[in-house]
Every structure is written in structure tokens, then in C-alpha cells.
Amino acid sequence: MRASYYAQAFHDLALARKIEESVLVKQFIATVAQNGHAYLFPKILRSLERILNREEKKETIIFL
């Protein structure tokens, strides 16, 4: 499993807002750890930052 896949899944779930943020974070951490991928957390965070930066750039371009 790639860290970017986890990051994208987390981002999509957060945008859907179907789950409260604190519950989402707890479940996400538990799922990643249960899958034996806890070592990917630093990479997942970096991938999530890249996704958010990309979105921010898109929004900036649209509003200019």
C-alpha cells in the first residue's frame, strides 16, 4: 500500500464530512496500524500536505 493512497482516502473522507473529524482520525490511525502500515505515517502526512497544497493552488488560480 502506498502512503499516497492512504492520504487520498483520508482527504476524500474528510471532504465528504460524513464522519466527525475526531472519529475519522481515530479510525484512520487504527486502520493503518491494524494493516501493519504504521511506519507509513510520516509519508502519509507528507502526501496529505501535497494534496492540500495542490488544492490550494487550484483555488488560487480559479479566483484570480
Description:
The chain is mainly α and 64 residues long. The chain is built from three helices and no strands. Helix 1 (3-16) packs antiparallel against helix 2 and helix 1 (3-16) crosses helix 3 (41-63). The longest helix has 23 residues, at 41-63. 9% of the residues are buried.
Question: What distinguishing features does this structure have?
Answer:
64 residues, mainly alpha
Give the structure's gist in a few sentences.
The protein is mostly helical.
Fraction of helical residues: over 70%
Give me the number of helical elements.
Answer: 3
Strand-pairing-aware structural class = mainly alpha
Rg of Cα set: 13 Å
| Proportion of residues in extended strands | under 5%
| Mass-distribution shape | flat
Low-confidence spans: none
N-to-C order of helices and strands: HHH
Largest sheet: none
- Look at the structure and give the mean pLDDT: 92
Query: CA-to-CA gap between the ends?
Result: 37 Å
User: What is the total tally of β strands?
Assistant: 0
Itemize the secondary structure elements and their pairings.
Elements: H1 3-16, H2 21-34, H3 41-63
Helix pairs in contact: 1-2, 1-3
